Structures are given as structure tokens and as C-alpha cells.
Amino acid sequence: MANIHPTAVVDHSAQLADDVEVGPYAIIEGDVEIGPGTVIRPHAVIRRYTSMGAGNHVDSFVALGGEPQDYKFDVSQVSYLRIGDKNIFREGVTISRGTGEGSETRVGDGTYWMANSHAGHNCIIEDGVILANGALVAGHCTVGRKAILPANGCVHQFVWIGEMCMFQGGAAISMHAPPFCLLAEDNTIVGLNVVGLRRSPDITDDDREDVKEVFQLLYRSGLTPTRALEEMDKRDLGSAGSRFREFVRKACTAQKPYHRGIVPNINRGHQRKQ
User: Fold this and answer.
1) Residue 274, pLDDT score
2) Is CATH 2.40.10.270 correct for 3-140?
3) 199-239 pLDDT, tens per residue?
4) Dihedrals phi, psi of 54, to nearest 5 degrees
5) What is the pLDDT of residue 2?
6) H/E/C letters for each residue in 84-113?
7) Average pLDDT over residues 6-24
């Protein structure tokens, strides 16, 4: 039987695994599912229609599955927040459930949310993403696996962030950011996340060369993104380079409201040796 503190409020319809721990004054609403090995700290709130897998850590004053911050949202709608396994939500994290009947916000496995970070409705936060303190992701965004979002930075709604992107503190974007890139300030690519590429166990030396090549075509060749994509299509790329290319293709062909363009050419004042 779950270890529930006497002062916690747990709805009778919530489904908790036998070894879930629920701390003092925590609130778990109805239609919630919490997997084994999960810890809910004091004063956390798990709102209706939230589900999470195994081994999650929910710290104090976290609010998961809150109603979307959307004027159009109808409180009678049933929508969801679905969370995977082994995620850490530190103090003050907030994540909204989807807006629109049957819609959902999704969080993968092994993400780390530092204090006061937030993801809005209908976001997809993929495996291994890290959100630093105060990082804010607006609704309908996708954040690719192992991306690292900035302290006190912002992501505009309807934006896609590629895998293993890394942001400098306070950076903000309102356009799509291709995989493996390093970003700073406002909508500025400053280079590749070369340290992350070098450390990643699933990125080979050939992958790194491919990524450098397609990055050069997109950002240092003087070509438009569409022409750069045509040049990429002439290359025989491995897995990582192909993922970069397909991200660019998706961004170039996106329809409204996702037609936001790609984060533009390098700010020459911030170039780094690759």
C-alpha cells in the first residue's frame, strides 16, 4: 500500500502503485495514475488527468497537469498530461495539460526540470531534456532529446528545438532550432554543441563530420535554407546528419502556425572554432 502522509489529500479514484510515497499536504486529484518508485514531496499538486510512470521525483510546490493557460480552454474538456519514467521535477515546476478535447502534453523519460521551469499545453518534451532554473516553454512546442534549455530563457509557442541543442543563459527563440546547435541571446546560432557531440555515446566520428558538413551548408555557405537543403540532399549522410537534414526539411515546409522559419545565420561576433 502507498505510503501516504495523514495530511495529504488523495482522491479515491487516483491510482497509486504500492510503493509510492506522498508527503505532507500534497494533493493528488482524481483520474491520476502514479507508477512505482515515485516520490511526491510536501505541498506538491498532481492535477486531474495526469499520469506518470515509474521512478519519478516530484519536489515541493510542483504543479503537474494544471489547466492550460489558454483563453480558449473549456474547463469541461478532458485533456491529459502524460509523463514517462525517472523524471525529476524540482521546486516550483509547472506543466499544463493539453488544450482541446482529448489532447495531451507529453514528457518522456529521464528529464530534469530545475526550479520554477515550465512547459505549456500540448508540448512534447523528449527523453533526457534538461530545463535550467526558470526556463519557460510556451504551448505547442517540441523539445528534442537531450536538449539543454537556458536559465531564465524563453521558447515561443509553436517552435521546434532539435536534439542536443544547448542554450546559453537567458537565451530566447521564436524560430525552429536545428539539432546539435549552440544558441545564445535572441534567435542566434553561435555554433555547434561540439562538447555534447563528442561526449554522446551514440554519435560516431563519422556522425560528427556529417553534422559539421550540413551545419556549414546551412549557416556558413551563404545559401538560403532551401538551397542548403538541396545541397544536403546530394550528400550520403549517416544517421545524425540525416536527422539534421530532415529537421531542416520539416522546418522549411512547415505550415501555419508552425511556419516560423529557422534560427538565422551566425552572429559573427559570437563565432567559435568548430
Assistant:
1) 36
2) no
3) 999 999 999 999 999 999 999 999 999 999 999 999 999 99
4) -95, 150
5) 82
6) CCCCEECCCCEEECCCCCCCEEEECCCCEE
7) 97
pTM to 2 decimal places: 0.94
Collapsing DSSP states into helix, strand and coil, what is residue 262?
A: strand
- pLDDT score for 266: 67
Residue 27's CB is within 10 A of a number of other CB atoms, namely 16
**Residue 118: what are its φ and ψ, rounded to 5°?**
-150, 145
Please state the rounded mean pLDDT for residues 133-160.
98
C-beta pairs of 69-73 under 8 Å, 24+ apart in sequence: 69/96, 69/120, 69/121, 69/139, 70/99, 70/121, 70/139, 72/99, 73/99, 73/121
Edge to edge, the sheet with strand 142-143 lists 15-16, 33-34, 50-52, 80-83, 104-107, 124-125, 142-143, 160-161
Identify which of 252, 185, 248 has the alpha carbon closest to the alpha carbon of residue 216.
248
Q: How many CB atoms lie within 10 A of CB 18?
A: 8
* Residue whose cell numbers read 559539421: 212
Q: Cell triple for residue 248?
A: 531542416
Q: Where are the domains of the chain?
A: 3-140
Identity of the residue numbered 273: K
Q: What is the pLDDT of residue 225?
A: 95
Grid cell in block for residue 214: 550540413
Provide the strand spans (E) within 69-213: 80-83, 88-89, 94-96, 104-107, 112-113, 118-119, 124-125, 130-131, 136-137, 142-143, 148-149, 154-155, 160-161, 166-167, 172-173, 181-184, 188-192
pLDDT in tens, 17-59: 999 999 999 999 999 999 999 999 999 999 999 999 999 999 9
